[in-house]
Specification:
single chain, mainly alpha, two-stranded antiparallel sheet, 7 helices
């Protein structure tokens, strides 16, 4: 029978290596390279998404983001309300506007087909770009602002394209062609931006809010958009 000495019977401990300091600065504290908490703390803080509002958090969400006030959650929900309001305006006016500019009925379905195709091809690209964005405004805000601006441009072209073309072009045939193109472009641009903005808006909520605030924010979304 082999007898274990006191040192041999103790459970082996992780190797602790001494942190190297620049010459002349002395010896620093020992660092445990087997400790996951030490490793992630050394790696730096995690970006919770936007503007450093939850800076100081460790990776994998070890620190809960700060609680958000009801007013801020309502303001966030109003962004979704504006999107749904613009959608309602488009749904109410798209048929009479397209027919008033002389769009053939056979091409009417083409207007609704272009935007889903663009979404299928580009939405993963924009979503990935948003995840890796390093703007000083945060990961989501630049995309929300850009897509919101495209929505306004699209709905303006859609509702006023015929009037703008009529003021610029005098030839009846050219006016009809350009009016159809401008209005169709406005509809496609608006649908594209309105479909894509939904992802960054909800991702922003999940990035900067605690679990309780996420539920409250989604409740306000449902209240303002249904």
């Amino acid at each position: 029978m082999t007898l274990l000495s006191e040192d041999q019977s103790v459970r082996p401990q992780p190797c602790r290596l001494q942190e190297q300091q620049p010459t002349g600065t002395g010896t620093g504290p020992a660092k445990d390279y087997h400790d996951p908490a030490s490793k992630w703390a050394e790696a730096g803080t995690a970006d919770y998404g936007d503007s450093g509002e939850a800076s100081g958090a460790w990776a994998f969400g070890a620190v809960e983001p700060p609680r958000r006030s009801r007013g801020r959650l309502l303001l966030h929900g109003l962004v979704m309300f504006g999107r749904e309001f613009c959608y309602a305006v488009e749904a109410a006016f798209v048929t009479p506007v397209l027919l008033s500019v002389g769009l053939p009925r056979s091409l009417y379905s083409l207007v609704w087909l272009i935007s889903p195709i663009l979404g299928f091809l580009l939405q993963p690209v924009i979503g990935s770009a948003s995840d890796y964005c390093r703007s000083t405004w945060g990961r989501r805000r630049p995309y929300i602002l850009a897509l919101g601006g495209l929505m306004l441009v699209g709905i303006t072209m859609f509702l006023n394209g015929d009037a703008v073309v009529s003021a610029i072009v005098s030839t009846p045939e050219l006016k009809r062609i350009w009016a159809i193109l401008v209005v169709m472009l406005g509809v496609v641009l608006f649908d594209f931006a309105a479909d894509f903005i939904d992802g960054p808006i909800k991702a922003y909520l999940f990035d900067v809010c605690s679990y309780q605030d996420k539920e409250r924010g989604l409740h306000y979304h449902a209240l303002l958009t249904d």
